[in-house]
Design brief:
- The complex is a heterodimer.
- Chain A is of the alpha+beta class.
- Chain A has a domain of about 150 residues: 2-Layer Sandwich (Alpha-Beta Plaits).
- In chain A, the strands form 2 sheets. A 3-stranded antiparallel beta sheet of chain A has the order 2-3-5. In chain A, strands 1-4 form a two-stranded antiparallel sheet.
- Chain A starts with 14 loop residues before the first helix and ends in a 9-residue tail after the last helix.
- Chain B is built from 30 helices and 35 strands.
- In chain B, helix 22 crosses helix 23.
- The N and C termini of chain B lie far apart (about 70 Å).
- The chains are: A alpha+beta, B alpha/beta.
Chain lengths: ~210, ~900
């Protein structure tokens, strides 16, 4: 028998070690008594996960507030749990939600099925779908666990304009993909003000026409 | 020379194969099981070599017998094989592979990267091919050519020119197959594009922002253009004419070329077969408005089925997503009876089966009001009403599967013990019934669609192939292209007849008999002559008799509706059953069907006395007249639209007066007047067998899961509630169908047997009535796309239908002082129709109208199907007409 890894037998303890062994366990207890506790006081104190945590999904917007989702359903295609359901819709000049022809008219994620693998995020061609660090996904009923667009779509950030509204004049959809649009233009703000004067996003909307050309 | 010697030996990728001379390399490779990528190549279109994706290395023996290679890769889709040819595809030749990759890179230079928003993505040959042989990253850094996207070719077909790779499949289809050249190549070089030959196609120029149209123009194009039910009768009044179109007034002022019809959305009429372009397109350049953004191919459930819109019952593939039919595609393969083409009606008109107003629960009339009821209550009410009725008529309608038709037949003859049954919800005659029972019922598969395509001589009598036949027209075009002689006996040369190159034998409406007799007397038909008879001949006394007396040619009766042949085969014509059918039914159901009621039915005191009911049976009109007069107590009505009947007013009175049980899918005038309404399953929610006009059974399975019952189940439930159960299962139906099919071999009527037609003596009677000035004889037939109930629910499709118009001869138009494009009022005592008039080659004092188009519903408004009508110009300011 060699003294390689197969030699698993412990070395027999000496006289002193045998005598101290019953007291050695208290060492852990004593040490812990004087260390900082690791208990998380959830839900009174919430812990922020790492930034790349796979939490609840979010549908993002372009800087002028138009939605990034084009309703292509690639996320639903990628989903191994069949948790995503998308129905695309047609943008019109009266009701435009995203640049281009197509937007996600109906978007649902079933969090009873979702396994938070993130394949949908990788599939998304416009970075419309990302994951947040929100992990509080529990509810009292099953219906409520199917998140609709109203809970998935990110609310307009400061400076953004709520949809629907048209693209800025002179801007084409590829400008959005190339990051040339940095905020709503005065024309867009005016368009919304005319039709929805009470829209709360009007107050904060950046009206400096920040469209890089 | 033996057939084997005639074959050409070639070697493709080391595989030796012998093929027919003249075979293209792509076809030879298909036979050898070797894939060559291609976009423009299509087995049913002539080779064009447009896309260059199929480049292969080719060498063939020279005059000295040495193998000589072509210096460059050759297009496999245009090069026929020669003996000893050696072909190396991309699989074995790096040269060919490099060429294919380069072509792919070229095709993708201007192809937009919008697969995520494209309806074709997921089933796109270009996408698949790019993934297979394309480069990982694009080397093209310049701006891509852009066009406004999409533009609407028609209300249904959208064109995105950015995505087009100019394979010309669409233009070749329009040119070679449908002969509707509404889409064509325009411009040259980098600006080459497909489009309509109208200024609209020139909206976008590839030079930057100036080429972009306003968003409103594009979205206006895409908006559902026509409300099916309330479409404007006059296209000029259509406020939805888009910015892309020249004002309608321009067109009204100038005489349009004859046959240039307008569609209901104000565009020039395009085609009845335009949906095939979408299926042909190997990229997402042509898409449909109704399927736009509806689904992704990966979560569509596809089921092969059969279309319900015409008597050819074409093969379709039905794509379902989340329990909803999203689209239909042509199926059946390029060698199938429909050649994998489909009419737009078969392709797009499926929404009617799931309209929100569809009947979902039975209705029973209580104190004059229809109220929802449970199934047992409704069945009991129907059974009680039918049991207490002394006489009952059955009007099953012309859209039934064979199983349902058989159920109506057995229900009428065994349970109700009546011969008053008639499936013909349209103008009809006793002559027609006799003809159908004698020459159509039990004759099995006769003339087929393939026979049409191979015919050398075709006579069309009272039959307009494009409008009334759908796919029949495309197959006849094949014959016409091969040089067949086509003669049409009709009042005027409709565009469809003209494009077939048919020789028109012009007749007054209703006098087809004389012309047919003369034609057949002048030259006896050859064995290869096909005589196609339309359902319109029921209004032409003696025509069917004249056809029946012909010797030598082959007859084919081509009705419009899908269930008419099944009705004939199942015995849904008034009077006694044809002998072969009586024996088939007796062996399947016992003696109850042998004519007189027997067994339990005879002993039942409530059974109608056979003496009181006419043993010869009453046809639809006679039944409705009797019911309106109170001589018929009850009616069992299937899928019958009141306005399709010869006299809608009489029909309404009859349905109101008699105890009516209506088996329907959608609410209709019949259900509104019925006493018991029983909802039945639409075709997508049941299985069954349609019988085409050829006599070919076309079985189909259920597409959607549903609790809706087919007519046969409902009738069985009523029969059981009447204590006269009938044992009718799909198995019995298929036994009867087999018996009928096999009976024809033994007892098929010979063409020489004379047909005793009671109306024969009346031939030519209509010539006695002569219209005077201000009057005209009415000629009418249905347009392919019209205001039919089964086209409801798709506004895009409705927008592609022809706008209604009247046709007058030049002399008659002069006589009543109406100019081409102005509006004409056609009236009878019952009502008036006002439509734009078009000067055409039609006999003097004859006016043609579409039977059931939006704003021109001849039977509903005028109450007639033919005969004398009044015509006068509509007294309106000309400016108002065109405004």
């Amino acid at each position: 028998m060699s003294d390689g890894p197969l030699n698993w037998k412990r070395k027999p303890k000496g006289f002193l070690a045998k005598g101290a062994a019953p007291w050695a366990g208290f060492g852990v207890t004593l040490r812990t008594l004087f260390s900082k506790p690791v208990t998380e006081q959830y839900p009174f104190e919430k812990v922020e996960p790492y930034p790349r945590y796979h939490g609840r999904h979010q549908l993002n917007r372009y800087p002028d507030g138009l939605e990034r989702c084009v309703g292509c359903e690639l996320c639903a295609w990628a989903c191994p749990a069949d948790a995503i359901s998308v129905q695309a819709g047609q943008n019109t000049s009266a009701e435009r939600y995203s640049p281009g022809e197509r937007y996600g008219a109906s978007y649902q994620i079933n969090y009873l099925r979702c396994i938070f693998c993130g394949l949908c995020i990788e599939a998304c061609p416009t970075r419309a779908l990302t994951m947040t660090t929100d992990y509080e996904l529990a509810g009292p009923d099953r219906d409520g666990m199917i998140y609709d667009k109203d809970r998935l779509l990110a609310p307009p950030d400061q400076g953004m304009l709520a949809t629907p509204h048209p693209m800025a004049p002179g801007v084409v959809e590829s400008d959005y993909y190339e990051g040339k649009v940095t905020g709503p233009s005065p024309e867009q703000v005016e368009w919304v003000r005319e039709r929805r004067p009470d829209d709360p996003s009007l107050d904060g909307a950046n009206q400096q026409g920040a469209v890089k050309r | 020379m033996s057939p084997t010697d005639a074959l050409v030996p070639v070697t493709i990728d080391g595989v030796q194969i012998s093929v027919e001379p003249g075979t293209l390399i792509v076809r030879a490779a298909e036979q050898a099981g070797i894939a060559i990528p291609r976009f423009c190549d299509h087995p049913q279109l002539k080779p064009v070599g447009a896309c260059r994706q199929c480049l292969v290395d080719v060498s063939s023996p020279g005059p000295d017998g040495k193998q000589r290679a072509f210096p460059k890769p050759q297009a496999a889709c245009t090069m026929p094989v020669v003996p000893g040819m050696v072909v190396q595809t991309a699989a074995t030749s790096p040269n060919a592979a490099a060429a294919q990759t380069a072509v792919m890179e070229l095709l993708l230079t201007n192809h937009p990267l919008d697969c995520p928003t494209c309806d074709k993505a997921g089933e796109c040959p270009l996408q698949n091919q790019a993934m297979a042989v394309g480069r990982d990253a694009s080397r093209y850094t310049c701006a891509k050519r852009t066009y406004p996207k999409p533009i609407a070719l028609t209300a249904e077909i959208l064109l995105d020119r950015e995505r087009c790779i100019l394979c010309q499949r669409c233009t070749r289809f329009a040119d070679q197959i449908a002969a509707d050249p509404f889409i064509a190549l325009q411009s040259r070089g980098a600006r080459q594009q497909v489009g309509r030959f109208d200024p609209a196609a020139w909206l976008g120029r590839p030079d930057g922002a100036a080429g972009r149209v306003s968003e409103d123009a594009v979205t206006a194009e895409l908006a559902p253009i026509v409300d099916t039910q309330h479409a404007p009768a006059v296209p000029g009044s259509n406020s939805l004419a888009t910015a892309e179109l020249p004002p309608i007034s321009d067109q009204a002022d100038t005489a349009e070329p004859p046959g240039m019809a307008l569609a209901l959305d104000g565009r020039p009429f395009a085609s009845y077969f335009s949906g095939n372009l979408i299926q042909l397109c190997p990229v997402g350049a042509l898409t449909s408005a109704s399927y736009r953004f509806q689904a992704r191919p990966f979560d569509l459930v596809s089921t092969e089925s059969v279309a319900e819109h015409d008597s050819s019952a074409c093969d379709v593939r039905i794509d379902v997503r989340r329990g909803q039919v999203r689209r239909r595609l042509a199926a059946g393969g390029p060698d199938g009876p429909s050649r994998e083409w489909l009419t737009d009606k078969d392709r797009f008109a499926f929404a009617w089966q799931s309209l929100p107003e569809r009947l979902t629960s039975p209705l029973v009339r209580h104190n004059g009001e229809l109220r929802p009821a449970s199934w047992p209550e409704a069945i009991a009410a129907a059974a009680a009403g039918l049991t207490s009725a002394n006489s009952t008529g059955v009007l099953p309608g012309g859209r039934l599967t064979f199983e349902d038709a058989l159920a109506y037949s057995v229900f009428a003859r065994a349970v109700l013990a009546t011969s008053d049954v008639d499936f013909r919800a349209r103008p009809h005659s006793a002559e027609e019934a006799a003809f159908l029972n004698r020459f159509v019922a039990g004759t099995g598969t006769g003339v087929t669609l393939d026979d049409l395509a191979a015919a050398s001589h075709v006579i069309l009598v009272g039959f307009e192939p494009e409008e009334e036949g759908g796919i029949v027209y495309l197959r006849l075009r094949e014959a016409a292209k091969a040089g067949a002689r086509i003669e049409a006996i009709a009042p005027y040369a409709s565009p469809g007849i003209r494009r077939l190159g048919a020789h028109l034998i012009q007749v007054l409406p209703g006098t087809e008999a004389a012309a047919l007799t003369k034609l057949l007397d002048d030259a006896a038909p050859l064995p290869g002559t096909l005589i196609l008879l339309g359902e319109r001949l029921a209004l032409a006394p003696g025509a069917l008799a004249a056809a029946a007396h012909q010797q030598g040619g082959r007859l084919a009766w081509i009705p419009r509706r899908v269930g008419e042949r099944a009705g004939v085969e199942a015995g849904l014509l008034p009077g006694p059953l044809p002998p072969h059918l009586a024996s088939a039914l007796t062996s399947a159901f016992g003696d109850a069907l042998s004519g007189a009621p027997s067994g339990a039915a005879a002993q039942d005191p409530t059974t109608p006395d056979p003496a009181t009911s006419d043993p010869t049976g009453r046809d639809t009109s006679a039944m409705l007249a009797a019911a309106a007069a109170g001589q018929l107590d009850a009616l069992v009505v299937g899928g019958v639209e009141v306005d399709d009947l010869p006299d809608p007013t009489l029909a309404r009175t009859a349905l109101d007066r008699a105890f009516t049980v209506s088996l329907e899918i959608l609410p209709s005038q019949a259900t509104a007047l019925a006493d018991v309404v029983l909802p039945v399953a639409p075709p997508a929610e049941k299985s069954g067998t349609y019988i085409t006009w050829e006599g070919r059974p076309k079985p189909f399975g259920r597409v959607l899961t549903s609790t809706a019952m087919p007519d046969s189940k409902v009738l069985q439930a009523i029969a059981t509630a009447m204590d006269r159960p009938i044992d009718l299962t799909p198995a019995t139906a298929s036994t009867v169908l087999e018996a009928i099919q096999s009976a024809d071999a033994a007892a098929s009527p010979t063409a020489s047997a004379p047909l005793d037609i009671p109306d024969l003596a009346e031939r030519g009677n209509t010539e006695q009535v002569q219209p005077v000035a201000g009057q005209a004889l009415l000629a009418t037939w249905h347009l392919n796309l019209d205001a039919g109930r089964l086209q409801a629910g798709d506004p895009h499709l409705a927008g592609t239908a022809k706008a209604p118009f009247a046709v007058l001869s030049r002399a008659t138009a002069f006589e009543v002082d109406v100019r081409d494009g102005e509006r004409l009022t056609v009236s009878t005592e019952a009502g008036a129709i006002t439509v734009p008039v078009r000067i055409g080659e039609i006999p003097d004092r004859v006016v043609w109208l579409p039977t059931n188009s939006s704003g021109c519903q001849v039977r509903a408004t005028l109450g007639v199907s033919g005969g004398i009508v009044q015509i006068e110009p509509t007294p309106t300011d000309r400016r108002e007409v065109v405004a």
